[in-house]
Amino acid sequence: MVHVGIGYDVHQLVAGRKLILGGVEIPHPKGLDGHSDADALMHAICDAILGALGEEDIGHFFPNTDPRWKGVASSVFLEEAARQVLQRNGRRVNVDATVIAQAPKIYPHLAAMKRNIAEALGLREAQIGIKATTNEHMGFIGREEGIAAMAVTSVDLP
């Protein structure tokens, strides 16, 4: 039976941090604030997978109060989500995600993001869809105060 999960994540942009999205370091004067590398895209995908499994969110598995996860690459979280699917004799079907950022431009980095996400999840790049959009200068994203990501995934479970 195919199960679908949805994920959403948002982080504030702050000076003094690297901007990491989809496991790619993107040149920008600000980065996303968070306990790990704050990769909102990978976090949203992780939550979507966990949701498809009927599990709690990423914070349950990797609490930001645990020093083990300080500065950790979010690919570690995706690898664990993939392991959770396999532990249930499931199969990851696909991921579709959108990054919402006024700046910087995300499109030039999409291919590398797809490679990183596919590798972390043990999928083919063709099973990963990533899009990028702006917030048309509206709200906190439009004011370049933060970046959000949303994702949906399908998991086939026995």
Describe what you observe in this structure.
This protein is α+β, with helices and mostly antiparallel strands and 158 residues long. 29% of the residues lie in helices and 32% in strands. It is built from five helices and seven strands. The chain has helices at 40-52, 58-61, 75-87, 110-121, 139-142, and strands spanning 2-15, 19-21, 24-26, 30-32, 91-100, 128-133, 146-156. The strands form two sheets. Strands 4-1-7-5-6 form a five-stranded mixed β-sheet. A two-stranded antiparallel sheet has the order 2-3. Helix 1 packs parallel to helix 3 and helix 3 (75-87) packs across helix 4. The longest helix is centred in the N-terminal third of the chain and has 13 residues, at 40-52. The protein is globular, with a radius of gyration of 15 Å. The chain starts with a strand and ends with a strand. The model has no long low-confidence stretch (mean pLDDT 96).
Number of strands: 7
Protein structure class? alpha+beta
What's the arrangement of strands in the largest beta sheet?
4-1-7-5-6
- What is the molecular shape? globular
Radius of gyration: 15 Å
* Major sheet summary line: 5 strands, mixed
SSE arrangement:
Elements: E1 2-15, E2 19-21, E3 24-26, E4 30-32, H1 40-52, H2 58-61, H3 75-87, E5 91-100, H4 110-121, E6 128-133, H5 139-142, E7 146-156
